[in-house]
From TrEMBL:
Source organism per UniProt: Pseudovirgaria hyperparasitica
Domain 3-beta hydroxysteroid dehydrogenase/isomerase residue range list: 8-278
Superkingdom, natural source: Eukaryota
Matching InterPro entries: 3Beta_OHSteriod_DH/Estase, Lipid_A_modif_metabolic_enz, NAD(P)-bd_dom_sf
Name used for this protein in its record: Putative NAD dependent epimerase/dehydratase
A molecular function (GO) term: oxidoreductase activity, acting on the CH-OH group of donors, NAD or NADP as acceptor
UniProt keyword list: Oxidoreductase
Family, per entry: Belongs to the 3-beta-HSD family.
GO BP terms, alphabetized: steroid biosynthetic process
């Protein structure tokens, strides 16, 4: 369509990025869509022939500039980033790579946006820009809290990148940042799989701390909706989101332990008994587990960092996103959790079938 708005999504082949592409396809079919990623497009995206694809690494300034120059988008949704997994989240081993992708990659995208006259940019930040200072609790956070205190590498990198994006806001390039809480849904490779693995490890009976600490979770399609709304605000609407950051989540904080129990129940597992580990004892056990990991080289689930995370209270008010963007989470935690676990069951079945076939042919 001549004159259609063009949206470029960095990381559009990933978990959140592909959900954003689908949301645009469903809600804004008149938009031209472009994906910039190092990973190929997913089959579901390929079914829509109108989606263009550029292979580019956001850490490579030349590749980013070339792709954005060729695509000439009106707006960029910058989702691409790196999330350290497992206990690498709590140490400095992957600091250089995390900052290379999340901070330097964002600098490259911003530079190309300015160079080629992009009108708007929506950045996928993270609530960890605030909450990755896990020695503290963050009940009912608002955007009034300052960014810059995160002590873990992911939250620190996202906070720096967010500040870069918001500082770039101008009459020529309108920018805003969205801060999702922990995201889950179909295609999730971190949250649901990690919680599910506790079943096989025999870890489900252990309650770290009180088990009552409230935590925010976000179903992926709700987060995708927030991005569509932010683009509409900056590109076609009043522009009231320009220069602003927004917490986005399901708006339904639940006890962290309760969320885990709900996931395990979807797989037919119920802890046969419960053992409460006081915070101090669990923290010491995490320290011992870290020593074991250092000696054996085998990563353990437990660490001092994971104990802090499991005991932290961290949830945000989404009132600003509701008021400015018109955001309202459409899929509840309960329905989203069922869908996410169903998807993971199917993926496990496929993996098991492939493993059986490999055994047969050996």
């Amino acid at each position: 369509m001549v004159g259609a708005k063009r949206v470029l999504v960095t990381g559009g082949s990933g978990f959140i990025g592909s959900a954003i592409i689908k949301a645009f396809q469903d809600q804004r079919p008149a938009y031209d869509l472009v994906v910039l990623d190092v990973q190929p497009l997913k089959a579901k995206i390929l079914q829509k022939s109108t989606v263009r694809y550029f292979h580019a690494d956001i850490t490579n300034e030349h590749e980013v500039s070339k792709a954005i120059g060729a695509a000439r988008p009106d707006v960029i949704v910058h989702v691409a980033g790196y999330v350290p997994s497992g206990n690498s989240r709590y140490n400095q081993a992957e600091r250089d790579y995390t900052f290379k992708v999340n901070v330097h990659g964002t600098e490259n995208v911003l530079a190309a946006a300015r160079q080629f006259g992009v009108q708007s940019l929506v950045y996928t930040s993270s609530c960890t820009a605030i909450t990755d200072h896990s020695a503290h609790d963050y009940p009912n956070m608002t955007e009034a809290l300052p960014v810059g205190s995160a002590t873990l590498i992911y939250g620190e990198s996202k906070g720096i990148s967010e500040r870069l994006v918001l500082a770039a806001n101008s009459t020529h390039l309108k920018t805003c940042a969205l801060r999702p809480s922990t995201v889950f849904g179909a295609g999730d490779t971190q949250l649901i799989p990690t919680i599910h693995q506790c079943i096989a490890k025999g870890e489900t009976p252990f309650i770290v701390g009180t088990g009552l600490n409230l935590y925010d979770f976000s179903f992926v399609s709700n987060i995708a909706d927030a991005h569509v709304l932010a683009v509409g605000n900056l590109l076609d609407g009043p522009g009231t989101a320009a220069g602003e950051a927004f917490f986005v989540s399901n708006g339904q904080p639940v006890p962290f332990r309760a969320f885990c129990l709900a996931v395990w129940a979807q797989f037919g597992h119920y802890p046969p008994f419960e053992v409460r580990l006081p915070w101090g004892l669990a923290y010491f056990a995490g320290f011992v587990a870290e020593i074991g990991t250092f000696v054996t080289g085998r990563p353990a689930t437990l660490s001092r960092g994971s104990v802090k995370d499991a005991c932290q209270t961290a949830y945000a008010s989404i009132e600003k996103a509701r008021t400015v963007l018109g955001y309202e989470p459409r899929v509840s935690i309960v329905h989203g959790l069922r869908e996410a676990c169903m998807d993971y069951k199917q993926r496990l079945e496929i993996c098991n079938k492939k493993a059986c076939l490999r055994t047969v042919h050996q």
